[in-house]
Amino acid sequence: MNSEVTDHAPPIRACIFDLDGLLINSEDIYTEIYNEILRAHDKKPLMWTTKGLQMSRGQIGHERILSAASLPLSVDEFRAETATHSHRFRESKPLPGVLALLSNLASASPAISLAIASSTSSSLFETKTAHLPDLTAHFSRRCILLADDEDMKDKKGKPAGDVFLLAMERMNAALVESSQGKGEEAPKLLTPEECLVFEDSIAGVAAGRAAGMRVCWVPHDGLQTVCRGLLCHVVQGQIETVERELIGRQGGKEDLEATSDGGRGGKLTRMADGEGEMLRSLENFYYGFYGIGIPSSWDEASYRSASQR
After folding, report:
1. Which residue in 109, 127, 143, 277 has a CA-CA distance of 20 to 30 Å to 238?
2. Taking each helix axis from N to C terminus, what angle separates 239-249 and 202-210, rounded to the nearest 10 degrees?
3. Which range (127-141, 204-218, 260-274) has the least confidence?
4. Residue 127 scores a pLDDT above 70
5. Nearest to residue 47, comparing CAs of 252, 294, 219?
6. Are 32 and 26 in contact, with CB atoms under 8 Å apart?
7. How would you list the strands of the sheet with 268-273, edge to edge?
């Protein structure tokens, strides 16, 4: 069993996951859809700087796509065109390492609470995951927070930390309910410092940090590439700095066409600070680094060596 905890941080007792581009490959499907819409309007393909500025940003994100492409559509019209392709999300697949990670976390001792906090809607969540019971089985419905959740009406979306704090509240409620059902003493409630957020977007990382939680950023290779020189800023949640720089890089020599090709490698590439890190994928996740009690295939020396690359 692993029990190493870094920088005197408390052991992680809960993990909160984004959905699109983190648990499943639906973010790649969005890219394909957006590029088809752009082609239909005789526009150039989406670039990774714009994609990075759009992800998890709701209306602002869509406005950024329309502006970068000089696409003469309103946000509502763009969303309507996107919706005509929603059936394609039935082909969503878990990303590398996801099912093993969830299975291991579900069997961890002490127990790890699990939640999803996503900017997707309930209907799209169903489309994207109904065929993936091995993934969704690890989450209780009350601990799946979506954009149209009743409790999100008066909350701010990412990059604000509201959705992650609400997910923690839901997990705490589940802990209390479980202890009462078993006639046990009241449980120790989760704190933000004991929660680990998994995100693929810049705004999502900033939201996790704003919530006071530790964060694992697992970006697409394309996003990582166009964020060269900004990786530490991303992981530290400095979204204004990152977005300002990406806006300046749009269409420049460092930009890349956004496609569904590429993806994520298989090892940790960089540690940024004690509260956040960047991973190439969710494969070979080092549980002991977070004080999560399950066997790991990595030893601490290997992990720390990899983290300096």
Report:
1. 143
2. 170
3. 260-274
4. yes
5. 252
6. no
7. 144-145, 113-117, 14-17, 195-199, 214-217, 276-279, 268-273
Instruction: Give the pLDDT mean for 128-141.
Output: 97
Helix ranges (H only) for the chain are 26-40, 48-54, 58-69, 75-83, 98-106, 122-129, 133-136, 162-181, 202-210, 221-226, 231-235, 239-249, 300-307
Strands 276-279 and 14-17: unpaired
Going by the DSSP 8-state scheme, the letter that residue 194 receives in this structure is G
The angle formed by the CA atoms of residues 100, 196 and 182, to the nearest 5 degrees, is: 80
What is residue 47's three-state secondary structure?
A: strand
Is there a cis peptide before residue 187, judged by omega within 30 degrees of 0? no
d(CA 278, CA 62): 26
Nearest to 21 by CA among 53, 55, 54, 50: 55
- Residue 11 burial (CB < 10 Å; 0-12/13-18/19+)? middle
Average pLDDT for 165-172: 98
* CA-wise closest residue to 280 among 298, 268, 262: 268
Eight-state DSSP code of residue 63: H
223-243 residue pLDDT tens? 999 999 999 999 999 999 999
Q: What is the pTM of this model?
A: 0.90
Strand, helix or coil at 283?
coil
